Amino acid sequence: MELIRKLFEDIRWGEYSLLALYISVLSGVVVGLQYDAAAPLYSVSTLDMLVPFGAYFRSLHFYSSQLFFLFCICHVIGIFSQAQSYSTKQWIILTATLPVALLILFTGYVLRGDATGFSAGMIAEAILLDIPYIGAPINDLFFSISDNGMKRIYLNHIIGFGLLWGWLAWSHVKKYRVAFSRHIILSTSILIFSIFIAAPFEPDHLGVTNINGPWFFLGLQELLRYLPPIVAGVIFPATLLLAIACLQRKHRKFHTLLYFVVAWLSLYTILTVIAMTR
Amino acid sequence: MTCPDAKNHSTAKRKFLLFCASIAALYPFFRFIGYSIPRKPRIIEIGNTLPAGGYHLGFDFVLFDSGEDAWALSRKCTHLGCTINFHEKDNILECPCHQSQFSMEGVVVHGPAKKSLPRYKVEKLKDNGGYIVTI
Lengths: 278, 135
Known about the structure:
The structure holds two protein chains of two kinds. Helix content of chain A is 71%, strand content 0%. Chain A is mostly helical. Chain B has one helix at 4-34; strands spanning 43-46, 54-57, 61-65, 70-74, 85-87, 92-94, 101-102, 108-110, 119-124, 131-134.
């Protein structure tokens, strides 16, 4: 067990995530040159079917973004012991990059404008609007799909959330430079993988009885079936974020928080599996 | 020479004023982004008259005609806003996200949705001229 832990910690997850981020940003710029937020569904269909190499660049953007997020999580787990020396403020700021990265990933899903993406966006909007007082302004700032289509989501996907992530992570990532030449296998794997595996796209069709949202959203989607949106969509996820933000060994309730995080993730996994089997 | 207490007090005061100014600056910002241009009613023409018991599925509405009466319902689920589909076999409208079900009149048959589907105004044109739906 100790050996596995050591091996896991020795993997340079941080570098991998930065590399995936570079590929994601570059391919995102390329995709953005053809993407039209005013006609998202049409635009993505065109990218996949008509634009030369459009499907490839979309796939590259999709999978590199997924990898970026997954590597980020592995990085947080891998450096957890070392990160105990961080101040509380540093730790809170750095852990806040995770939900922001997830938001970038989520808005990318929504921007597809297909059945899954559009529904996920509408659910997010409904959840926000359920928050008293501050819900509507937050929705106006980030989503507002009903009133503005994909305009604001697109703006936040490419600029707003990116800037926020950069602002939160800058003091940490500015120390590191990751060269493609040092990670040729990983870079090549992502570039080649995207040739063969297309990014998901699910156009709406008649008689569909079940839509499953993005993989990280499935547990939440399942919970929304039983609980009011503000509980399932706001309070429940917020408890995890708060627990992670306080998860430092110097905290006197460290073990309680750790058990809570593990229990939360286990419950979320069960909910995700239930949603997948529907 | 300034007393350290007075200096601290001045810094705290400045920070407080800055905080108040930031909050005040947020007001016009949120007023600005919260404004939606009033939407004109959208008028949709459907050229053909449906057979009695028939339906027409639009992008954001579904139109029914019983033969005597015609009505249109929103396709936006009242639970969380997903686009609902009509299942002709069971005469039921169902949301694919959480499987809320609605009758053809838009009334909730099965939750989690609690509210009925909004109805839109429908004008049935004479001589098999179709319909005008106002959304």
